[in-house]
Write a structure and sequence with these properties.
The complex is a heterodimer. Chain A is an alpha/beta fold. Chain A has a domain of 121 residues: P-loop containing nucleotide triphosphate hydrolases (Rossmann fold). Chain A has a six-stranded mixed β-sheet. In chain A, strands 2-1-4-5 form a four-stranded antiparallel β-sheet, covered by helices on one side. In chain A, a hairpin with a 2-residue loop joins strand 9 and strand 10. In chain A, helix 3 crosses helix 4, helix 3 runs parallel beside helix 5 and helix 5 packs parallel to helix 6. By secondary structure, chain B is an alpha+beta fold. Chain B is 55% helix and 20% strand. The chains are: A alpha/beta, B alpha+beta. Chains A and B meet through helix 2 and strand 6 of A and helix 1, helix 12 and helix 15 of B.
């Protein structure tokens, strides 16, 4: 098992304005899984992914990654996990506008791969894998939305991440690019054995996964 | 890796051209102003030094030691004997740092014209040929009419009067006056002298009292060959502090010592303190304004890129690396701004120095002076260093604040 959550809760606000976004979530994700989190808006999908990605703290509960209990107060360890084991694909791509496609991909491995040549080679390899070998020196504003998201996918793979988290990765893409991205993620999952966990409403994406977690009002149903 | 962060910082500065230019020009204008202001203060002290040294004080004066802490109760009581003064002049004239050495006699008395108008005077007996050269290029002490004494060994009975004293006596060049003074033995002596010139001391009160006579006349009038002081002028006007110990070393074992011009004219130090206090206060205010301006720009830059910061944090980029990135941006803005400011300040100084603008006479003075800005490379480097530090501080504050937020808050920042 790659990742396990036990009785995870997340409460926003205090007292009167308190919102219970997650209500005791138990979840396990295996290495190499291709898992979707679905549910209506406000069901807690993004909150769940943020907690799994160590971008946010849970209010209570336990989190294990690779069998190790995560302590959110240990910033050094959290940073190490983000750098080496976790990858992210964002809905808005979140590419740095001043960096080329290759530099954006390289950047994500700045902490995990200290050798610049190795970093560059890996970035080029993953950009080739996502079909952007001819766009390595293009800046984000010179790329289409679909191409930007593929750069984002290549970026998430750097450092040979074990788990890639994607929050609504197809939300800003048209149908054609959505299908291409789904195929790409599925292929990478099968070829590299990297686990993917993503939130989505997209039925086409849900049809491709081997496991779907349905969330409603902060609970798995 | 540091180079990578610098490259990103540089690209971000270039990316936000308009905003970066606002910050760079703010720093440039402030840097240029500091360089100009310091250049003007520098000129003020440069001018004041020359006004004092060339205005008659010299770089230093040699006097009897008692003159420093005591008061004379009798005329020339602490005066230097002729032998002592001549030997000292000879010794000093052979020193390579010394340009010229002059003996002076100071005394007071009453001057009158045609037995009808009389008034008090404060006289200096001088070695005229040397004194003329001491005051070359100095507007204070300039002749309004007539000229310096001539052939004083043959005819010592000459006098030059300060402009208001001449007016008071209604005497012009070529006119005759009678100088009446106490002798060193306590008697009274009088000598007729011809007015050869009228000069402006630059100080209103002194213009009513001052006159100069050849030292030979002073000795005849006072019935003595003593000297009040020996004025030393150095080849390098700025070398007083380094040459003073050497001169005092030469005088070791005698009853004399050398006093530098800044001790003889203590107001210089007071003026220096006031000017630098004002400059420091102004400097601090200007720097705070600069800091706030650049911090505002850097604040906007950081604010606009909070999701980028969150993204990088999500990929395990450390906080110190992100700090470094923004610090480089501040550094680039501060450095480029300061370089532009230095060019601006030095260029403006050049233009102002060529413009021939005359400044009004300072308080207590009668002569105007040309505006000069004397910026120094030292100030330019200091400004460069300060503005670079300022850029660093201005960028550190906002990025540090943002880095305290959770990554999820950074990613969702709008």
């Amino acid at each position: 098992m790659l990742m396990q959550l036990k009785k995870i809760t997340k409460v926003f606000g205090t007292d009167i304005a308190e919102v219970r976004a997650l209500k005791g979530i138990d979840l396990e994700v295996d290495a190499g899984a291709f898992t979707a989190v679905s549910g209506p808006s406000g069901s807690g999908k993004s909150t769940l992914l943020n907690i799994i990605g160590l971008l946010d703290d849970a209010t209570s509960g336990e989190y294990y990654f690779d069998g190790e209990k995560i302590d959110n107060s240990n910033e050094q360890h959290i940073n190490h996990l983000r750098a080496f084991d976790l990858g992210f694909i964002f809905q808005d791509f979140n590419l740095l506008p001043v960096l080329t496609a290759q530099e954006n991909v390289e950047m994500s491995a700045l902490s995990s791969i200290s050798n610049a040549q190795e970093r560059k080679a890996q970035a080029q390899h993953f950009l080739e894998q996502v079909g952007l070998e001819d766009k390595m020196n293009a800046f984000p504003n010179q790329l289409s939305g679909g191409q930007q998201q593929r750069v984002s996918v290549a970026r998430s793979l750097m450092g040979e991440s074990k788990l890639i988290l994607a929050d609504e990765p197809t939300a800003n893409l048209d149908s054609e690019n959505t299908l291409k991205l789904i195929e790409l993620m599925r292929k990478l999952n099968q070829d590299l054995g990297t686990a993917f966990l993503f939130s989505t409403h997209d039925e086409r994406l849900l049809a491709k996964v081997n496991n779907t977690i349905k969330l409603l009002d902060g609970e798995i149903v | 890796m540091i180079g990578k962060w610098f490259k990103i910082a540089w690209r971000n500065v270039v990316r936000n051209k308009r905003r970066s230019m606002v910050a760079i020009w703010t720093v440039a204008i402030i840097s240029g102003s500091i360089i100009l202001a310091h250049g003007y203060i520098n000129f003020t002290f440069w001018g004041l030094t020359r006004m004092i040294v060339q205005g008659g004080t010299g770089n230093m004066q040699i006097v009897d030691n008692r003159m420093i802490n005591e008061f004379e109760t009798e005329l020339l009581e602490f005066g230097l004997s002729k032998k002592m003064a001549d030997d000292t002049v000879k010794k000093l004239e052979s020193n390579k740092d010394v340009r010229r050495v002059m003996q002076r006699v100071l005394f007071t008395g009453i001057v009158s014209k045609d037995d009808s108008i009389s008034t008090v005077f404060r006289a200096t007996g001088i070695e005229s040929s040397k004194e003329v050269r001491l005051q070359q290029g100095n507007s204070a002490g300039a002749f309004v009419k007539g000229k310096m004494f001539k052939d004083t060994e043959k005819n010592p009975f000459q006098v030059i009067l300060a402009v208001d004293l001449a007016k008071k006596l209604s005497v012009d060049v070529g006119g005759e006056v009678v100088l009446l003074a106490n002798t060193v033995e306590g008697g009274i002596n009088a000598i007729d002298a011809t007015v050869t010139g009228i000069y402006d001391t630059g100080i209103p009160i002194t213009n009513q009292l001052a006159l100069k006579v050849p030292i030979e006349l002073a000795h005849q009038l006072l019935l003595t060959d003593k000297t009040s002081s020996i004025v030393v002028q150095l080849r390098d006007i700025e070398a007083t502090r380094t040459v003073l110990p050497k001169v005092n070393n030469l005088l070791k074992g005698s009853v004399m010592s050398a006093r530098p011009w800044y001790d003889i004219k203590p107001y210089f130090k007071a003026v220096e303190t006031i000017y630098y206090s004002i400059f420091t206060v102004m400097g601090v205010i200007i720097m705070v304004v600069a800091l706030l301006s650049v911090a505002n720009v850097m604040g906007n830059t950081v604010n606009e890129r909070v999701p980028e910061i969150g993204t990088l944090r999500a990929f395990g980029i450390k906080k110190w690396q992100l700090r470094l990135n923004f610090i480089f941006e501040g550094l680039i803005i501060g450095f480029i701004g300061a370089v532009l400011g230095a060019i601006l300040g030095l260029g403006l100084a050049l233009v102002l120095n060529q413009s021939g603008i005359m400044m009004p006479p300072p308080p207590g003075r009668t002569t105007a002076y040309p505006l000069l800005i004397l910026p120094t490379m030292g100030t330019a480097f200091w400004v460069l260093a300060m503005m670079s530090v300022l850029g660093v501080v201005a960028s550190y504050l906002p990025i540090n604040k943002i880095l305290k937020k959770k990554v999820v808050e950074q990613l969702n920042h709008t």
